[in-house]
Amino acid sequence: MRRGAVNLGLLAVGLVWLLPYAWMVVTSFKTLPEIVEAPTAPLPSGLPLDAYQEVMRSLPLGRYLFNTLVMSLLIAALQIAVALPAAYALSKLSFRGRGVAFGLVVATLLIPAQVRFVPVFAMLADVGLANTMTALVLPFGVSAFGTFLLRQALGSVPTQVIEAARMDGASELYIVFGMLPRMIVPSLVAFFMFSFIYHYSDYFWPLVMTADDKVRTLPLGVALLREQGTGVRWHVVMAGNVLLSLPVLGLFAVAQRHLLRAVTSRGL
Amino acid sequence: MSLLRPRRATDPLWMLAPTLLLLAVFFFYPLGFAVYRSLFRWDLLTPPEYVGLDNYRALIESGELISAFTTTLAFSLVVVVGAMALGLGLAMLLNRRGAFAGFIRSAIFSAYVVSWVSVALLWMWVLDSQGVLSAWVSALGLTPLDWLGDPDVALYSLAAVTIWKIAGYAMVLYLAGLQDVPPVLYEAAALDGAGPIARFRHITWPLLRPTSAFVGTTSLIASFQVFDVVRVMTQGGPVRSTTVFVYAIYEQIFMNLRVGRASALVVVFFLMLLGLTALQLWAWRAKRGAS
Predict the structure, then answer these.
(1) Residues of chain B whose pLDDT is less than 70?
(2) Average model confidence (pLDDT) for chain B?
(3) In chain B, which ranges are E strands?
(4) Number of domains chain B contains
């Protein structure tokens, strides 16, 4: 009895988050006459895909999705490739200037995209690189968060393991890119997921760096549905929104553990 | 953590080279570039013209600076207080075993994971004058507000949407904090006859203070950088009532083509983030001193 009351309370709270998602899906299955006649009807009359077809007609969705995936994968891969050797040096090697180097990485937390976009846009426009994949990827090559996370993970690898590998004649390059990554797989997965989802969803940077469909990304495209819209075509906007959020929600469902790990470890 | 001697003295430099190069080109040089260009009038097309501190003066005299600052501050305060209170409430409610509670936790946290664009579009439709919220309010016999069209309301609608999105982040961190509270304390307090309110005041809240310091300062810094919900939902309007700091910068460079003016705003914005970060470090240090 008490248990049932508790669960009912939990459901009531959960509905505040679940109902808007449900509303998005319901709206995406409505037709234009339905939206005009009864915009708040709780259910559509059927499951027509009109709105989805309309999205596909009005947007080069495949192109946007391709751009978004390429950009997010390139950023995540670049960040890991750049952060691995840096994290190795910062966590395992003794050298002068170690504290300074680490301080510089920390300092980037003070310079978010919202501070960088004006000068970086002006710089890249000057050299003809605005509106290119380079402008989307390269400015995010260093991730302070990723460097911390990998540095922390590598810190827990015993020094003797590295000494032994050196004795066996392994090169430093092999140690950094061949041997150590296999010993910190959970951290690499957590970081990859975090970076991929963050940049897949990013709106700000692609908005200021892109000018046309060549490199435009999915969130921008879906937001355009609303801007082009004549006000009432909400079923089309919500269909685009379902297509935009479904991959992330799917990834979230299978990888929630890794994301939680990434979020809670930021506090360290 | 014991350290190894590098094999060659230059090894650490090579390993840090990609990081340092990218930092120089995409972080530190741009910051200097912004400071320098804030002293020029420049539209990206014609050559820049040196104007001294005119950009700063114009931003102050036109009232744009102070209005962007107060708008951002009002938004941030509502978001931080709202997200912390809601996050803590949800964490205490959902700090229980069971698949159902786990499912609800996931549903709430998922809003933090999906994109700002998704959330903004979704809530634009909910808050539309033809939308479901206004219909429900009318059904209750009340007059719905013009959620996004009324200059006195729009900023708080955006804040509410932001709280909805980030409450899951606060909840997850508070849940982690609650795990660290020893259950013995509650048992002892219950034996001493302490009611739920007394237990919250004297056990939960003080022991969660480090978590609160973290959630509060990180969400304050994040909400100062708000842009996406503004760009998608209101474009700074109605009548500039939601023109927050970053939106003002965006407007200057991409609508007015004033790179110098935008750079001056960037410089001020950077200094504000510096101040907020100092506040954050102070809050964390105070918390470490206390525990």
Answers:
(1) 1, 287-291
(2) 91
(3) 40-41, 49-50
(4) 1
